[in-house]
Design a protein that fits this description.
333 residues, alpha+beta, Glutamine Phosphoribosylpyrophosphate, subunit 1, domain 1, 8-stranded mixed β-sheet, 8 helices, 16 strands, disordered N terminus, binds N-hydroxy-L-asparagine
């Protein structure tokens, strides 16, 4: 696939960020600095699977008035989706053939909870919320997270792989080439951020992580400040893509802090992608990251390393999928 692609760089960056195979497209200036504005309430989530999640979140927000309930219930739709190979127990396994899940949730007051490397739990986002609300802790991992789930009355699911995931895993086993990869051409981690009519924010993020990852590997999604960050004084951000690159720059926290310093959500996402590319030079196939951001005024923005990242926006006017702008443009020869 790599050989059939070219990457056209959208904007001028330092030449140290250019990779040999990338095609630079002249010195275009940054165009879309202005974030898009719609009325509150507003819910955003990553990838096209965000459409169904947004729809649920919207109806929960209307029923309960709670933006935290909305972001939890919204992503539960994706966690339960049998067709999802990147979120929930139907996701791709790690290289030992075991599905392990990561999730986090946060409200605008700084309350947060997360779980990582957890098995057999259908709704890790609910478990993350229970960590937030029922324990003095922020994060539980692995076996301990599972034990806590059981103590909270959550059922343990069996560990049978979804047939499609099993088939791909068996194909992968033939070579066992260790190249964990974000499944970015299809859809991926769901990160959701929302703003209610009173200006309260909340966010959620849930994933099965990189396909065929090392057993025990944890990505950005359950790490507060990496895959998700929310602050009622400023805004919220979430991330999708290769978690290691996001963790290295505390990506979602950085987006929110840039907004705190006055950047629009769009500017904050773009600057954060640039920071990420300074720390992790761009390398085609394995390299996708996207950020979504919202500020307390109801403006939002999105930006990705390369084209292909989509997100879903739900507001009074409807629910639609939007293509994100990106630093590199992917084309097919
Ligand atoms: C992770 N960020 O585990 C997640 C997975 C993902 O595109 O979003 N992949 O690193």
């Amino acid at each position: 696939m790599t050989s059939r692609r070219k990457f056209l760089k959208n904007t001028l960056l330092s030449s140290t960020l250019m990779l040999p195979g990338a095609v630079k497209t002249g010195l275009q200036s940054l165009e879309k600095k202005t974030s898009k504005q719609v009325n509150k309430p507003l819910i955003l989530s990553t990838w096209n699977h965000g459409l169904a999640a947004n729809e649920k979140a919207w109806s929960v927000l209307n029923q309960t008035g709670s933006i935290l309930d909305a972001v939890e219930e919204g992503v539960k739709v994706t966690e339960a989706d049998l067709s999802s190979r990147s979120v929930g127990l139907n996701g791709y396994p790690d290289r030992e053939g075991i599905v392990t899940l990561d999730a986090s949730i946060m409200n605008g007051n700084g309350d947060c909870g997360s779980v990582c490397f957890v098995r057999q739990i259908k709704h890790p986002i609910t478990l993350a919320r229970k960590v937030m609300e029922e324990t003095p802790h922020v994060m539980l991992a692995g076996e301990g997270a599972k034990q806590f789930a059981v103590s909270q009355g959550m059922p343990l699911e069996d560990e049978e792989l979804h047939p499609d995931a099993r088939q791909e895993y068996e194909e992968w086993l033939e070579k066992s080439e260790y190249k964990p990869k974000a499944n970015f051409e299809n859809h991926d981690t769901i990160g959701m951020i929302g703003l209610d009519a009173d200006g309260n924010l909340a966010g959620s993020c849930t994933t099965s992580g990189l396909m065929f990852k090392m057993h025990g590997r944890v990505g950005d999604s359950p790490i507060i400040g990496a895959g998700l960050y929310v602050d009622n004084e400023v805004g919220a951000a979430t991330a999708t893509g290769v978690g290691e690159t996001i963790i290295k720059i505390c990506g979602s926290f950085l987006v929110v802090e840039l907004m705190r310093q006055g950047r629009t959500p769009q500017e904050a996402c773009e600057e954060t992608i640039d920071r990420l590319l300074q720390k992790t030079p761009f390398h085609e196939d394995e390299m996708q990251v996207g950020f979504l951001a919202i500020n307390k005024e109801g403006e939002h923005g999105a930006y990705a390393v390369q084209s292909g990242f989509t997100y879903a926006v739900q507001h009074q006017g409807g629910n639609s999928a939007v293509k994100s702008d990106s630093r590199y443009q992917t084309t097919t020869e």
